[in-house]
Predict the 3D structure of the following.
Amino acid sequence: MVYPKGNPVAPAPADAEAAILRTLLYADIFDYPLTPAEIHHYLMDTPAAPEAVQSALETSPWLAARLTRVNGYFALADRAALGDLRDERQRRAAALWPYARRWARLTGCLPFVRMVGVTGALAVSNSPPDDDIDFLIVTAPGRVWLTRALAVGLVYLARLLDHVVLCPNYVLSHDALAQDGRDLCAAHDLAQMAPLVGHDVYAEMRAANPWSLRYLPHATRPLRSEPDLAPRDLLRWLKRLGEWLLSGPLGDALENWERERKMRKFAAAAQRPDSAARLDADHVKGHFDDHARLILQRFEERVSRHLQSDQSVD
C-alpha cells in the first residue's frame, strides 16, 4: 500500500499486527479509540479474519507494548483517556441521531434527491460539542445546484425548529458517483458514511469506487445499519410532482441561475491554495479547507514515529 510520500514504514513482526496499529494510529487523529469489531471493519491494507484480529489483540506482546484497552476500546498506550472521551461523544451523538433521521427524511422528500448520507463525526458517533449534522446528497443529473438551494432552506428551518445545524456540504450528481480523491482519507469518508435515504444509490456509489477497498478491504458495507427513509405514498407522489414542475425550462433556468450566482460567490475561496472544493455542473463540494491533506500528513508522522522507530530498536 502506498501512503503519502515520506520515509518507508518499517515492517512489524506480523502483517496483521502492523495493520492493527496503523488502523488505530489513523483513528487516534480523531481522538477515536476502536472496539475489536471496528478495528476489523476499518483494518488497513491487509485482509484478516475477525478471529485473527481478536487473537492478535489478546495475545500479541508487540501490540500489548503499544496499546491499551479501556471501556471496551483499544487505544494507543498513552491515550487511555480516550475511553471516557468516546463515551461522552457517543452520548452527544445519540442525542443528535433522531434529528439527523428527521431532517434526512425531509431532505429525501425534496425534488431530485436520490440519496442522503450522514458523514463526518456523527456518522461514527464521535460528536464533539456543538457538532453539525453533515449530509452528502446525491441528486438527479442537471439539478445539483437547485437541489442544494432547496436543502439550504431546510438548514434554516432545522435551526429554527430544532436548534440543530445541518451542513449539506457535499452535493453531487447521480452521474458523478466516482470520487476523484482516491486516498486513505477519501476511502474512510466513503466507508464511514451512514446512508439514510436511497440505499440503492449508496450501493451504486460504493460500486463506482472499488479503489477504496485497497485501503480498507473489509469496509464493504456501512458499519451502522439504518432503515431507508426514502419517501413513500403521498410524500413520494408530491416529490414526483415537484420534479415534474421543475424538470423543464423553468428548472433549467433556476439551475443555471443558482450555479452561476453561487460560483461567483465562492470563486475566491475555491481558488485558495489550501482549498479542496469542487464546484461545477455535477458537484457542489464546499470543502474550502483541505483537511484531508493535513490528516494524511499527521497519519504519516504517526506511522513514522510508531512503526519506523522499531527498525532502530527491534
The chain is about 50% helix and 10% strand.
